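Hi all, long-time lurker, first post. I run a small reading group and we've been trying to get comfortable going from sequence to structure in the token notation. Rather than ask abstract questions, I figured I'd post a concrete chain and ask someone more experienced to write out its structure so we can walk through it together at our next meeting. Sequence below, copied exactly:
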Amino acid sequence: MAVRPRPAGNLKRPPQPKAIVSLPNFVRLVERYKKAIVGIEVIQDQQVASRGFQLGLPWERPAASRRPSVNIGTGFIFDSRGYILTNEHVVNGASQVLLRQYGKKDAVRARVVSSDYRHDIAILKADIEIPNVVLKVGRSRNVKAGEWVVAVGSPLGLDHTVTVGIVSATERPLEIGDREYPDLLQTDAAINRGNSGGPLINLRGEVIGMNTAVSQSSQGIGFAISADVLQETIRRLLR
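-- Answer (accepted) --
Happy to help. Here is the structure in token form:
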């Protein structure tokens, strides 16, 4: 007599593999905008004393000096007319400002068009090749903690160094010395000496901040002036 197989009851299906989430394509973003970012060399003759902030500006020297020195920073072309944005503390007291473009061997002299010391923003102009794609300053009011960001700059003079992180927090007010920063974005993207004035870019290719300061007593705590403050200051300085 044939025995029919009985169906096994309550058989559990094996767990389905979780979907693999891929990281954003940072290469495409960097390739598109790298020519709009410039390294800045500043020759300074006057004495600049060390400020010794716990939250310091990554451009500053550790000690006072009366000898001419070369300091470094970053800037980015934000306008098709060739205007360049950077931190005021990068060019403060400079006797000469030189720009280095991506792929160009020779540095080009630049001049300061206008600046705002208190809010640490300066606009430069130079006789340089304007790339087909410039960096547009976006809006930061809707930026959320956790968003991916890319920082590009010249830490220790290493031009066009790319670091990646997230927005750690928004709307951080700080005072560093006699400068006021009413609306900073906090990020864990690596920021070091020479990054000052470089762009903090979102995945849409918009500048949402300008890298400005870093905690000297800890790691992964950097600050960028928000795009909304940049927009307001640019309009006022170019008026």
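A couple of things your group might point at:
The domain at 27-126 is CATH 2.40.10.10 (Thrombin, subunit H).
Residues 227-237 form the longest helix (11 residues).
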